[in-house]
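Board notes (copied after class):
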Amino acid sequence: MALTLDELNSIRDINDAWTRYLKPTIDEIIKLIDLDPNTVMPNESDISRFTSIIEHLCQKLGSTNEVAEHALNIFVDYCENNIIGVLKSLKDGPYLLELADRWNKFKIFAKIICDLFKYLDNNYFNIERPSGSNGVLLILNLQQRAYNIFKDQIFANQIEMIEHLILDFIDQERSGETVDNSMLKNMFITLDPTLQQFYKHLEDEFLQRTRSFYQKYSQSMIETETVPDFIIKCENAFNNENERVEKYMNPSTQPKIREILDEELLRKNAHWIVQSKESGFLVLLDHNKIEDIGRMYRLMTHLDNSLGIDAMVQDFRTHIQSAGENLMLTQNVPPRLIQEIREVKEEEEEEEKEKEKLIPSQIYIIVDQVISLFRRVNRMHQELFQNLPQFGTSIQDAFSEFLNDSRSKYWMKFTESLAIYVDELMKSSLASTLNDQIQTRFDEIVGVLQYVQQKDVFINSHQYLLSQRILNQAIGESEKIEVEKVFIDKLKIRFGDSYTYKLDAMFKDLLPQVKLQQLEDDQQQGLNLGFDLQAQILTKASWSILKRENVNLPDNLQQALQSFQHLYKKIKPEREIEWFPKLGSMVVEVQFAQKKCNITMESTQALVLLNFANGAQLSVNDLSTLLKIDKDEIMMNVISLMSRPPLLIRVYEGSQGQTSIRLKDDDQLKLNKELKPKKKNFRAQRLTDQSQLKTLWLQQLVLDERKTKIDGTIVYLTRELVNNAIAQITNFIPSSFEVKQRIEDLIEREFLKRAEQNPNIIQCIY
């Protein structure tokens, strides 16, 4: 409670005020701090009373200097009575812990006293006054002066012992001993700047002990630990020392301690860490030790790239290239199964997914593993190496090297196989709807393709297989078409519009299917086909990838095609129709013993199956002769029809068939009349043999396109040469014919010559 005016006027001097009002309050504060320092706070009424008394003493009685002296003596008395006496009987650890406890209480006490003497702080101590032995003018507030008193009273004679105790305490903790560090946390940081010299000496000794410890620690670990174990302990050491600095030292010590750890743990051992043959970076990559790889990278970023990162980048490339070459140069790829999920429809019109296990070809496995390798190393680049460009360059260089290595058994086929991989993917359930998973897979495929030099082989192969999917109704659904277009868009974004213009043209050219029954009724008189015929009308320019192949068709089907062509000619007299009978699909009605079924299948499958009507028994050789189709292609179709459910079986087999026995060209086959399909309407097993890709024909197509491109480029450059020559002549305008004549004349006179490797290149003779 504030004093009344009469009470203030009754104060005779500083001693009277001290005895009657100030000292009792301060004594009570000291008692409360000893009991529980964390609960003691300055009382507003005490602050008000102290302020009025001190203002009266300074202004009315002119005792400012005496009041200031009393204020400072409060801290001197506190140190003598409450700290020094207690510490005299203690040594070592107990001494240090008690000192930390007393320092904590002193800070609380100093804060409260400064609040009580705030008037004096504002009007006396915050004015420049001579300070120290050299009398330099400084502004030292009451709290700073209190800390100086603590330093002079407590540290003056014990500073070396305190320093050693602190460092010994830290050493014990660093060595793994359990210590009570709660009282030491930030013990001396708040003493700055009054203890700068003490802290500098303490820091120097702390850093020296740290260096000595980790020199021995590092050497012992290298002798006994593997690289992964070593870098785990290194990372722990960095974390522990960071926490230690936060507890005991000033933040300015942080970079200094890190430099010591960098030097003793990393810089001196960088070569061993990265290039250890037993457990270095390359070994970690080969064993896909993700956590250890990330940890090594984080630690090596502490050093110059030349000491660690550069070697890791080189090893990263070596790892990718070695893994890729093992795929491309060897055949020892572990076999595995992939699943193709197809949608089927039950009689109750409920949708379900039926999985069929296929053993993929060797080349398909290689493509899949190349994509897996691409996925894995790019994830490392992004998640572990923080997209550091050098690692991205390693990926690019390594993939470009092994995918285009002419020593590889598969390098010429890989691009075609990548197209086949896309084809299988598009036919699988994964591509049934557009989702994040399929988009990610597309990104990976395009990512691998960017490193392939023979990109024209891929786009032609992909165009051919896309045409088969479209015409065989493998992508009849709108969602499937959307998925196909998304993949084309990704190719376009990466490689430009010119790369995909043929694919775009195919989709734009897709016209609605035309039914023969949709033509004018009066144009159909006399036709009785017994089946529905749907024709897909395509523009030849947009579908130049298709190759027409002749085949013997049943008479009724041949008649239907001729009739359609005749009637369509009446509607579109300006157009000519050319049939591709092996493309498209058919729905064949088959009468089994217990059920009649409608089976959707590819055209060549249907042509094979139709020959088994009326109980016929035929071999692969017989079918090849009847249909005039290559025997290998007949074999592929027959095997697909013998797959689950087996529509064809060997003559001597039961209704379940024996697909495990290799089919021979002369094995007699028959329709499996005893088959009991679960569904009335279903689709036959799709063709799975990747020989459907017409390799030789497509290769010739690619070569022809390359010739056209090269010729066009040469003509363009020659035209540029002529145009540049004309542009350089200013006093008259020569014709292009004259320039060409002069070029030939200069060649004849041996001023110019044609390059030996390419006669279209003109070289100057010096």
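Comment from the instructor: The CA atoms of residues 599 and 682 lie 5 Å apart. The domain at 585-692 is CATH 3.30.230.130 (Ribosomal Protein S5; domain 2).
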